[in-house]
Amino acid sequence: MNKTAVKRKKTIAILTGGGDVPGLNPCIKTLVYRAASEEIRVIGIRRGWAGLLEYREGETLSRKGCVQELHPPEVRTIDRSGGTYLHTSRTNPSAVRKREAPAFLKKAFKRKDEVKDFTPRVLKNLEHLGIDAIIPIGGDDTLSFADRLHRERFPVIAVPKTMDNDVFGTDFCIGFSTAVTRGVNMIHSLRTCTGSHERIAVIELFGRYCGETSLVSAYLAGVDRAI
Fewest beta carbons less than 10 Å away: which of 44, 165, 169, 215? Predict the structure, then answer.
């Protein structure tokens, strides 16, 4: 009698990195639901890239560790709250400072090393976890390491998330709409005070090297000048 080989389920991982914005939890929920409909296993990486850096082989998949399995019932209501269910960090495994490295990884640094590239460790952990592709949700810094994994030929599907709206190849990043809405509300709130005191208000909005947040907020708020 021939034995039929059991086909392993495809597995994807999801993580969130950088600043938290509204829209992260709905994105996580949508990805988990869609994956479940395609019979794809989902692993959530906790605390951004730090989760894959700090994960140790044999660690239990749970909310208390670095990784956890995600199922529709577990994420059913996460879109009702802000922030990110998976938590976040600004860790970049390709440039980890010695003073910020976990205690058990400090011995990997040579005496004169201040920064070390732990990309091989991340790739090893991805292989150990049986992850076929990873979906990082983040901005410039988070996606810069995603690009590094892509160059190492690991499958990556990036979801742009930044209030600056400066990720190439997309019209609107998660977080941009909220940044503009709050910027417009703030401008409107200052109008009465500015007018009452017969003054000119100069409002500075962030945007890193991109002026789209300022430009769109200025247009929607009907300001006199946008620089």
Answer: 169
Provide the pLDDT for residue 115. Answer: 93
Q: 169-185: per-residue pLDDT in tens? A: 888 899 999 999 999 99
Catalytic residue of the set 164, 166, 171, 224: 164
183 and 113 in a common domain:
no
Q: What is the pLDDT of residues 184-218, one digit of tens each?
A: 999 999 999 999 999 999 999 888 888 899 999 99
Burial of 113 (0-12, 13-18, 19+ CB in 10 A): exposed
Residue 38 falls inside a structural domain: yes
For 68, the domain range is: 11-160
Q: Does 211 reside within a domain?
A: yes
Residue 180 lies in a domain: yes
Give the confidence band of 136 by pLDDT, cuts at 50, 70, 90: very high
- In order of 36, 39, 79, 133, 147, the CA distances from 12 in angstroms are 11, 11, 20, 5, 17
224 catalytic, yes or no? no
Strand partners, 161: 174
Query: d(Cα 186, Cα 153) in Å, to the nearest integer?
Result: 45
Q: Are residues 209 and 118 in the same domain?
A: no
